[in-house]
Amino acid sequence: MMETELTRKLKIEYPIIQAPMAGGPTTPELVAAVSNAGALGSLGAGYLSPEQIRNAVREIRQETDRPFGVNLFVPEQPASTEADIAEMNLYLNKYRVKLGIATNPAIPKFAESFEEQVQVLLEENVSVFSFTFGIPPQNILQSMKQKGIFVIGTATTVDEAIALETAGVDAIVAQGSEAGGHRGSFLNSRADARIGTMALVPQIVDHVKIPVIASGGIMDGRGLVASLALGASAVQMGTAFLASVESGAHPVYKQKIISSNEASTEVTSYYSGKAARGILTEFMEDMRFYERPVPAYPIQNALTRDIRQAASKARNPEYMSLWAGQGLRLARDCTAKEIVKQTVDQAYRLINNVGKLRN
Ligand SMILES: Cc1cc2nc3c(=O)[nH]c(=O)nc-3n(C[C@H](O)[C@H](O)[C@H](O)COP(=O)(O)O)c2cc1C
From which domain of life does this come (predicted)? Predict the structure, then answer.
């Protein structure tokens, strides 16, 4: 046991949350394995249909009776023009030709219905609802509260953390700029400020009363102890679990995770229309020559989907999105249970050693 305010509230043994990772990595097997190991597994359900969410939640429940979280994307109203969308769709044809798939596809559905996704979480009465990209409407937060569902929002600045606390969430993920995947920023003024985890966590801790979860670049017991020292009540680790045995990440993606280093990633908006950190690819480099506005999320995400899917079928990582954080050299390809155990054991050793500094 390693008790903090958050472990008590979430009824988990260790202050470790396996980050929700939409797009395949967070399989029901991974989520259940993490929860069974005493941490909190989370399903990244942002891209899943309501039916797929229900099935995944039920699969997780067959493998664990412990708490786990489900994560959704708060919808946005993209302001891109028809002309910008059509222009991008046309431009992307050069990658479609390269990958041997149909050019000029019809513009697909942008995103799943958030309200219907939320409905499934309420009906299935999940333990934890986490979200990113904004703040859900009050009626949704109230329905979660009425059901006793623990609600976690994502902040990348102190202002966003205060806005989330004011809206009534139960805890906040402080997402530093080292983090893999999409930036959770939603207050436009300083969206590209990209504060590092070390600087962000204590400043958020000082400005809110609810528990704070440190996230971004945390890969092992050292990151866990450092985060607790900064005032966090838990950590949320994504990249650390990406190459695990239970992760659903594509084998080529896992290989890239294991063979990359701290300098391999960049933040890009070219895949989805929203800033996200991933391993640098040919697609990211080549798209720099695109001079017109990139359609906003989730439009660009929908436009590049056929390209990413074709690349994944062809085992070609250069046109896949390889989201990953800056802690890459510390990623391991062992089981999720081993990652949790090694993290906890290392943290215990460190806490003892740090204690000895005072003589
Ligand atoms: C592949 C991948 C997918 C992600 N998808 C989500 C997601 O669906 N929802 C979310 O809130 N955060 C998502 N994140 C961000 C994580 O919650 C977390 O902030 C990040 O993984 C922390 O940094 P780290 O990867 O260095 O541990 C994703 C991260 C990665 C690497």
Answer: Bacteria
